[in-house]
C-alpha cells in the first residue's frame, strides 16, 4: 500500500522531534541536577561556617554547643548531620548524628573541600568534608588539624529532581504535540499545489482539459512546463496518427471496395471467385483491425467516465434483433455502480465482441453479468455453446486465429479486445462456464483513487 507523502513527512518530523526532545530532556535534567548539587554545596558550606563560628576552647580542647540554633541538627530524623573528626576519631557530633556510625572515610587538608556520596545501608547521603586548623590560646601548644564532616540524605534532592523530571517531560511532550499539529498545518498548506495538480490531472484524464495551468509555485513551475510540453507533443503526435490512419483507411478501403464490386463480372471458376472474395474480406478485416488498434492506443490518455450498464443494454438490444431467429434465452444482471474510464468506442468494442461471440456460438442460453467488487468492476459473458479447450485459451486471443471456420469472421475480434484491455491495464480471463460453454471475464479498476496526502 502506497503511503501518503504527508504521512511520511509527519513521521520523519515526529522521529526527529522525539530524538531532539530526548536529547534536550537529558541535557536539561543533567544541568538541573548539577545546579542542585552546586546549590547544596553552597548551603552546606554556609552551615559549616556557622558551626565553625561556634567553636570554643575548654581545657585546651575544641568544644561546640550540645544544642544548635538550626533545629535540623538537633532532630535525629531531620537527615542533616555534622561531625568533627581528629586523626580519624570523632571528637564531636550533632544530636542528629548520635546514632550514626562513621559514615565517611578520608581526610581533607586545611582549607580543602571534598564532596562525595555514600550510603549507610538504608539511605543515600551527600557528604562534604572540610579541613581546618585550630590554634589553642596557649601558644605553646601546637596547632591541631580537624575535619568538619557534614552530611545530608539525598531524599529531598531526589524528590525535587523527580518532580522536575515529571514536569520537564510533560512540557516536552506538549511541545512535540504542538509542533506536530503546526507541522501538519504547514505541510497541508505546502502540499496544496500538489493536490491541485492531482485534480487537474483528473480533469485532464477525463478529456475536459488539454493542459495544466501555469499558476504554480516557482519550485513546481519547471515540472509543469515540461509536462505541458509532453502533453502538447503527445497531442500533436496523436493528431498526426489520426490523420495518417484516415489517409490509410481511405487509400485501402476504396480499392478493396472496387475489387469487390468488379469480382462478380470477372470470368473465373466459382471456386476461384470464392477464394478471391474470401481474401478480399480478410484484407478488409485486417485493415479495419489495424486501424482500430492504432486508434485504441491514441485514446487511452483522454479518459472519460462512462457508465457501463447503459452501454451493455444498448449492445444487447441490438444483438437480440440480430439473433432473434435463434430464440436465445438471455440472463442479464447489470449493476449501475460500474464505470469505465476511457473511450466509449473502446468500451463498445469490448462489450460488442464478447457478447456477439457468445450469441454466435451459444445453443440457446447467454448470461451477461456486470457487477462491482470493492474497487473493481467485473463484466462476465457466458454461453452454453461448445466452449473453448483449456489448451487453446491463449491461442484464441492471437490475431487471425479461429477455432470454428464455419462461422463468419477472420479471428480478429478477441485479439482486438485483448489489445484494448492491455492498453487500459485491464484483465481478461477465459474459463469454463457452468452453462457448458465459454466464460469471458473482464476486470478493471472502477475508481480513480485519490493519492493525495
From TrEMBL:
One of its GO terms (cellular component) is plasma membrane. The chain crosses the membrane at residues 168-187. Its EC number is 2.7.13.3. InterPro entries: HAMP_dom, HATPase_C_sf, HATPase_dom, His_kinase_dom, HisK_dim/P_dom, HisK_dim/P_sf, TCS_sensor_his_kinase. The keyword Transmembrane helix applies. Its main location: membrane. It holds the Pfam family HATPase_c. Residues 188-239 form the HAMP domain. It is an enzyme of class 2 (transferase). PROSITE patterns: HAMP, HIS_KIN. Residues 247-448 form the Histidine kinase domain. The keyword Kinase applies. One of its GO terms (molecular function) is phosphorelay sensor kinase activity. It catalyses: ATP + protein L-histidine = ADP + protein N-phospho-L-histidine. It is found in: Membrane. Keywords: Kinase, Membrane, Phosphoprotein, Transferase, Transmembrane, Transmembrane helix, Two-component regulatory system. This is histidine kinase. It comes from Bacterioplanes sanyensis. The lineage of its organism: Bacteria, Pseudomonadati, Pseudomonadota, Gammaproteobacteria, Oceanospirillales.
Amino acid at each position: 500500500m502506497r503511503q501518503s507523502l504527508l504521512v511520511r513527512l509527519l513521521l520523519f518530523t515526529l522521529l526527529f522531534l522525539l530524538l531532539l526532545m530526548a536529547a534536550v530532556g537529558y541535557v536539561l535534567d543533567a544541568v538541573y541536577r548539577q545546579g542542585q548539587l552546586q546549590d547544596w554545596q553552597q548551603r552546606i558550606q554556609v552551615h559549616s561556617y556557622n558551626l565553625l563560628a561556634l567553636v570554643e576552647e575548654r581545657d585546651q580542647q575544641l568544644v561546640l554547643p550540645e544544642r544548635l540554633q538550626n533545629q535540623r541538627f538537633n532532630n535525629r530524623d531531620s537527615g542533616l548531620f555534622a561531625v568533627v573528626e581528629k586523626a580519624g576519631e570523632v571528637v564531636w557530633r550533632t544530636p542528629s548524628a548520635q546514632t550514626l556510625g562513621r559514615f565517611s572515610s578520608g581526610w581533607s587538608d586545611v582549607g580543602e573541600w571534598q564532596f562525595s556520596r555514600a550510603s549507610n545501608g538504608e539511605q543515600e547521603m551527600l557528604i562534604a568534608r572540610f579541613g581546618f586548623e585550630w590554634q589553642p590560646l596557649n601558644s605553646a601548644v601546637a596547632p591541631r588539624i580537624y575535619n568538619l564532616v557534614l552530611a545530608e540524605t539525598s531524599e529531598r534532592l531526589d524528590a525535587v529532581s523527580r518532580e522536575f523530571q515529571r514536569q520537564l517531560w510533560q512540557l516536552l511532550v506538549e511541545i512535540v504535540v504542538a509542533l506536530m499539529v503546526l507541522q501538519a498545518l504547514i505541510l497541508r498548506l505546502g502540499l496544496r499545489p500538489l493536490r491541485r495538480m492531482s485534480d487537474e490531472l483528473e480533469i485532464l484524464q477525463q478529456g475536459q482539459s488539454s493542459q495544466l495551468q501555469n499558476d504554480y509555485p516557482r519550485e513546481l513551475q519547471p515540472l509543469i512546463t515540461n509536462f505541458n510540453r509532453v502533453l502538447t507533443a503527445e497531442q500533436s503526435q496523436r493528431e498526426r496518427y489520426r490523420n495518417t490512419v484516415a489517409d490509410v483507411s481511405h487509400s485501402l478501403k476504396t480499392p478493396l471496395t472496387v475489387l469487390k464490386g468488379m469480382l462478380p463480372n470477372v470470368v473465373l471458376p466459382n471456386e476461384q471467385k470464392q477464394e478471391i472474395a474470401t481474401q478480399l474480406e480478410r484484407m478488409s478485416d485486417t485493415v479495419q483491425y489495424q486501424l482500430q488498434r492504432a486508434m485504441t492506443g491514441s485514446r487511452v490518455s483522454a479518459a472519460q467516465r462512462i457508465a457501463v450498464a447503459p452501454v451493455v443494454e444498448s449492445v444487447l438490444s441490438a444483438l437480440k434483433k440480430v439473433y432473434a431467429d435463434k430464440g436465445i434465452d438471455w440472463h442479464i444482471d447489470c449493476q449501475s455502480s460500474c464505470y469505465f474510464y476511457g473511450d466509449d468506442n473502446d468500451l463498445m468494442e469490448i462489450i460488442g465482441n464478447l457478447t456477439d461471440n457468445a450469441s454466435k456460438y451459444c445453443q440457446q442460453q447467454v448470461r451477461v453479468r456486470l457487477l462491482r467488487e470493492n474497487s473493481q468492476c467485473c463484466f462476465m459473458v457466458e454461453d452454453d455453446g461448445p466452449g473453448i479447450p483449456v489448451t487453446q485459451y491463449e491461442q484464441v486471443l492471437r490475431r487471425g486465429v479461429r477455432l470454428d471456420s464455419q462461422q463468419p469472421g477472420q479471428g480478429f475480434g478477441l485479439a482486438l479486445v485483448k489489445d484494448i484491455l492491455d492498453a487500459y491495464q485491464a484483465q481478461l480471463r477465459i474459463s469454463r462456464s457452468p452453462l457448458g460453454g465459454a466464460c469471458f471475464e473482464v476486470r478493471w479498476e472502477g475508481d480513480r483513487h485519490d493519492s493525495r496526502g
